[in-house]
Amino acid sequence: MMNHVNIRLLIAKVPYTARLPQILVPSLVWNAQFGVQIFFAVSGFLITSTSLRRWGALSNISVRDFYRLRFARIAPLFLLLLCVLSILHFAQFKNFIVPPKFGGLGGALFAAITFHINVLEANRGYLPGNWDVLWSLSVEEMFYLFFPLVARLLGRGKLLVALLAGLIILGPFGRTVLAHGNEIWSEYSYLGRMDAIAFGCLTALIVSRIRFSIPVLRMVAGVGIASLIFILGFSNRVYRTVLGRSGLEMTIVAVGACMVIAAAAQTQWRSPRFLGPLLSLGRRSYEVYLLHMFVVFALFNAFVAMGKPMGAVPVLFVAVILIASAFGDLAARFYSEPMNRLLRRRSVDGPSRLGSVIDGERVVLSETDLVP
Question: Has residue 8 got a pLDDT over 60?
Fold first, then answer.
């Protein structure tokens, strides 16, 4: 969210970073791609771990039920968003019009529904903001389109681990050599971003099979946190090193995130109460992510109408975060979650057989809490 506000400020030529320490600026407003990388790692862990709980082994996955459960979580808000964006396009609202070079509205809709918004943007340039955020959904859902099929075939042997390791190894090449100098593709490509999801899947498999001692878990957590601080805190310098040029900085972020995830999972760590708002924000991240650009555009337009006062910039950042979070929470409570429950009850044979996250009316932490 901060990155997208930052982009709007830069486009409007608001020099709000002039007096800020230059090492601080990238860490605050330019780390969105690292955030997505962490998000993918968490998503891979959640999908794999909940699949193991539901079916006991990945080789036992019901492909049909897997797709139906994913549809119940993803489709309601996703399809509603596409309807709203289509209406705004036809109404010719500024910042919501799909240019002809993308094939117009039809081209954007087709790319979104078939999960290749990232390919469209790599070939034609950036779409309007509310469409652009769908690139990450294209990457993640393309991974999960094949996940149950591969797991069903390879879930019992070492071939699945080898496949995940292959995606991890190829990730940095997808961000560099195989991007062929295309800046958008280096950030949005399937191969360049699936390594984080694969890391998350592999972490879930390791955690389910190996029990680590507390000293080892503390060391793992410490190294993971240190790795994340190094990349996120000094990203502007890392970009200029061999890590940035080789695409390995994203690999380090995924590894660091998975180390923290593994330690938290096996120690059953619970966050302090004062972090509750951040926990809630994470659980609503799918809704917040898909809808936050509406808030960004609305508040930024108000900021411009006020004459772009420099003193209002911090207020703009904070207001976007708070209002977008509240908007996402409302969308989840009154639309996404009720639709998710309804579709799950109608599409599968019940929560008890599937080990579903739906336990009566209680929703527990699972992949329903985190979808990019």
Answer: yes
